[in-house]
Amino acid sequence: MVYTTRYARGGRGRPDGTGNAFETLLALHGITQKNGKPFKPTTQGKIERFWQTLAKHLRTQQAATLPDLQQILDTFRDYYNHERPHRGIARRTPAQAYHLIPKATPTAPDDPDLWRVRYDTIDPTGKISLRHSARMLHLGIGRAHARTEIICLVHNDHATVINAATGEILTEHTLDPTRTYQPKNG
Question: 4, 33 in Cβ contact below 8 A?
């Protein structure tokens, strides 16, 4: 759920197009997110092979404390990436292979003034939940609107909650990521 909400209720795979903070950040930078599928050797094989090598290495090492373990991991990482040649990349180290290829860079979206649209139903206590700035926020709309289907428009730190059936603006919120509960403006 940290990397994708595609398979969750309200995830990017749903018509409302909402996602978590990581997915939103990628979209803001014009990056298309692609996730590998578990147990698919064509996409996951390289990292699974790396975990196998790391596990074998750790079985030969003794770490009495967390700092000791961190030192072992740091030493392994440096050796694996800068000294140990790999058959799969023409006997180069990963660092050498990495520096040989051009790097992709994100492209800015055509319109940096992006809006997020979210379809939801107000819960029995008169709130909806919204992930914003890597935090779960709860927007207070009011118990009188419990179980009302809404459209929530989010732009930067501003959210507008609209009754989906009538188009009436129910509440507006200035989002404060330092607070869990978000009261309505005014």
Answer: yes
Tens digits of residue pLDDT in 124-172: 999 999 988 778 999 999 999 999 999 999 988 899 999 999 999 999 9
Which amino acid is present at 34?
K
Q: How confident is the model at residue 123 (pLDDT cuts 50, 70, 90)?
A: very high
Q: How far from the centroid of its chain's Cα atoms is residue 72's Cα?
A: 29
**Single residue among 50, 79, 100 that ends a domain in this structure:** 100
Per the structure, the complete domain to which residue 148 belongs is given by 111-182
Evaluate whether 177 touches 133 at the Cβ level (below 8 Å).
yes
State how far Cα 104 lies from the chain centre: 20
CA dihedral 25, 181, 159, 161 (to 10 degrees): 130
**Is residue 3 in a domain?**
no
- Between CA 127 and CA 12 the distance in angstroms is 22
Q: H or E segment at 50?
A: helix 41-59
CA separation for the pair 102, 17 (Å, rounded): 32
CA pair distance 108, 30, nearest whole angstrom = 5
